[in-house]
Write a structure and sequence with these properties.
By secondary structure, this protein is an alpha+beta fold. The chain is 28% helix and 31% strand. It has 2 helices and 6 strands.
Length: 88
């Protein structure tokens, strides 16, 4: 996807509520960010997260992403906070 005229990888996850709180999203997101860092290091990994979605914010942070307020943008139906992969 494109973010501010740059090609980025958008980390998107959605899980059945039956598994919320089990750590599955954090495990999956961490595996994907590590894979991306190893296999496509020239591509930035981001997550677009709604300000009120605290669980997804925690998942992103545990997966090695950090909030990048200067990149926050309007999504299709509201403000998206942008989190960016910060580890090498």
């Amino acid at each position: 996807m494109r973010l501010n005229d740059s090609e980025v990888m958008n980390l998107f996850y959605r899980f059945d509520p039956a598994v919320w709180g089990s750590g599955l999203a954090t495990e999956a997101a961490s595996a994907v960010t590590r894979w991306a860092a190893d296999n496509i290091p020239d591509r930035i990994v981001i997550a677009r997260i709604r300000p009120q979605n605290f669980a997804s914010q925690r998942v992103a942070i545990h997966a090695g992403l950090a909030r990048a307020e200067h990149l926050d943008t309007m999504g299709e139906d509201g403000l998206d906070w942008i989190f960016v992969w910060t580890q090498d």
